[in-house]
Amino acid sequence: MFAYSASDLYCESVPLADIAHRVGTPAYVYSSQAILGNFRAYHEAFGDLPHNVCYAVKANGSLAILALLAKAGAGFDIVSGGELYRVLKAGGDPAKVVFSGVGKTADEVEFALEQGIHSFNCESEAELALIDALAARTGRQADAAIRVNPDVDAATHPYISTGLRQHKFGIDIAEADGVYERARGLRNLALRGVSCHIGSQLLDTDPLLEAVEKVLALAARLRAAGHDIRHIDLGGGLGVAYHAGEEAPQIRAFIAQLRERLKDTGLAVMVEPGRSIVGEAGVLLTRVLYRKKTASKDFVVVDAAMNDLIRPSLYQSHHEIIPLRKSERPPIVADVVGPVCESGDFLARGRKMANVVPGDYLAVCTAGAYGFVLSSNYNARTRPPEVLVEGSTWRIVRPRETYDDLIRGETP
Ligand SMILES: *Cc1c(COP(=O)(O)O)cnc(C)c1O
User: In terms of domains, do 338 and 384 share one?
Assistant: First the structure.
């Protein structure tokens, strides 16, 4: 959905330079067609297999994006009470919400119970007991799944790998049978599912398929033991192409494989994709402030920084950086850095890129997931606006913050 027409970069039918001129930079821009296309790829590939595609809100919780997905029929995977609040404000259906996370508080569990969410993905026996007690107090029965840790290596960045025995997430699959057995005594908790999530940015789907086999084997054992297991939840994790020319898994092909494997099990299936729905659907627009040469390096100083997009600094991740207008000048090799006072503040290092001059605009690509949601006001920088493109129209769905926003609620 981001492509050049002649020498100008477009999002759908809108020249990105038009947006940059009108809203200023830095600014996040999202393609609604890309987001909906990715969601439908999941939804349609499941076909008539009972399923729920629960978008992982933590990847990008913008109300406009949640509303777009809610209208298309998505469920939502949340990891906090705040994310549930966002989903409700965007018109999401609480009956399609799953609540994940290793540290749910009593307040958050109560809020979710009141709203009637679909199910809790539980990560410890203490959590099962808490949900049971709170459900009893409100006279409800809570549906839950246990998030098991299948002990498969997701082969991704260590910070976003979650499915090994050493990680804080889930319950060791080897101990799961016992946990389900003991939970039979919890009257206000119905354990109806098995869930897992082994990591993020997976470019190889074999570990996911390995996890599926382990989860299915557990579900079969539990059913044989008399547990009323109705669904499995396979989490998120499909990767996207951050490097030009990189091959990311095809959503439709992967889900078709899952469908084949699951169609005769009688189980409903849930997935929790985040990055693979919004990652490629967003760019961060930035403007070149200065060119600067030192004895050893060429720097391109831009107006976007690590507070706007922390992925390069936090995960050493690569984002393609391309000009909004192509030029004939031969490329340069440079570090692209922002104004924040940290050496870790860079968007790219040693990058072969367009030979830009101050005032030129650049797009930092594949910035739709874990971009704005991880932004901060570090260095008292106002956070960028978010823009949603729909065909040939676009609108600001969150304005740029003002200095007043920076001090809201503070007392000197
Ligand atoms: C982060 C997370 C997801 C989404 O992962 P993606 O890699 O963005 O698809 C889904 N489920 C859980 C439990 C998560 O923590």
Answer: yes
292 in a structural domain: yes
Q: Do residue 243 and residue 105 come from a single domain?
A: yes
What is the Å distance from ligand 1's center to 335 Cα? Answer: 31
CATH number reported for the structural domain that contains residue 400 in this entry: 2.40.37.10
Q: What share of the chain is helix, strand, coil (3-state, %, to 5)?
A: 35, 25, 40
- What's the token pair of residue 334? 């440079």
Q: Report the C-alpha gap between 402 and 208 in whole angstroms.
A: 43
Sign of CA dihedral 129, 131, 132, 134: positive
Q: What is the pLDDT of residues 270-312, one digit of tens each?
A: 999 999 999 999 999 999 999 999 999 999 999 999 999 999 9
Distance CA 218, CA 151 (A): 13
Domain final residue, candidates 271, 298, 326: 271
Centre of ligand 1 to C-alpha 22, Å, is 34
260 and 164 share one domain: yes
SS3 274: coil
Categorize the per-residue pLDDT at 42 as very low, low, confident or very high, splitting at 50, 70 and 90: very high
- Residue 21 neighbours by CB distance under 10 Å: 11
Residues 217 and 353 in one domain: no
pLDDT on residue 121: 97
- Using most ligand atoms within 8 A of CB, pick from 200, 270, 278 the residue to mutate for ligand 1: 200
User: What digits encode the pLDDT tens for the residues 228-241?
Assistant: 999 999 999 999 99
229 in a structural domain: yes
Is 341 marked active-site?
yes
User: Is 204 in the same domain as 292?
Assistant: no
Q: Which two tokens stand for residue 115?
A: 């709203």
Best residue among 272, 275, 370, 374 to mutate for probing ligand 1's pocket (most ligand atoms within 8 Å of CB) is 272
Which ligand 1 atom is nearest residue 275's CA? 8
159 pLDDT higher than 70:
no
**Cα–ligand 1 centroid distance for 274 (angstroms):** 6
* Residue pair 160/201 in contact by the 8 Å Cβ criterion: yes
Q: Of 246, 271, 296, which closes a domain?
A: 271
Domain that holds residue 311: 2-30+279-407
Average pLDDT over every residue of 249-253: 97
Work out the angle between the directed axes of helices 63-71 and 81-89 (0-180°, nearest 10): 60
CATH of the domain at 178: 3.20.20.10
Is residue 283 located within the same domain as residue 266? no
